[in-house]
Amino acid sequence: MTEHHHEHGWTRLGTEIAHEGPHLTVHRDRVVQPHGAEGTYEHVEMADGARIVMVDGRRRVAFVEDAFYPLGARLLHVPGGAIGKGEDPLDAARRECEEETGWCPRELRHLTAFHPLPSRTAAVVHLYLAMDLFRGTVRRDPTEAGMTLRWLPFEEAVDAVRSGEISEAASVIGVLLAERALTP
């Protein structure tokens, strides 16, 4: 690969794929750092995500609890998942709501898009607020077999974020932005 200059001060001299799997690709680039030293930089290519703060008519927030292998623990978090190749983020959000919770939103409002780990991946997570929910069908994939649905009153959800009980990034950002969006 030829030398590749970036306006942010880094120069990529070459790249190799260190690992390619079904969910992510690890790249190892030879780079010139902004201060001039040569080195290597590893980064991960993965799908963008869609995550949803679902609020029902009783002002309860839908959370799913699932086991996260790297943490060796179960975490409460807002529903969501990877956006498929060529899939619209809004469609992915709608699909993930139903698949993981069995509820579908009539209203989806974009809250923000954020970079969950910018030092390691360019992947973006799109956050939505979902309201006016109606019944659908749960369709969890095999890795989500142990997933459970839990509804928390909105103020409890905010308190759980503030206390650190809910610590997953999209859930923290989503609940706090939804609080602002839903405050008259």
Automatic annotation (TrEMBL):
Domain Nudix hydrolase positions: 33-174
An annotated GO BP: nucleoside phosphate metabolic process
InterPro entries: NUDIX_hydrolase-like_dom_sf, NUDIX_hydrolase_dom
Record has Nuclease as a keyword: no
Record key words, sorted: Hydrolase
Pfam families: NUDIX (PF00293)
GO MF annotations, alphabetized: hydrolase activity
GO cellular component assignments: cytosol
Cofactor: Mg(2+)
Lineage top rank: taxon: Bacteria
Protein name: Hydrolase
Organism: Streptomyces albireticuli
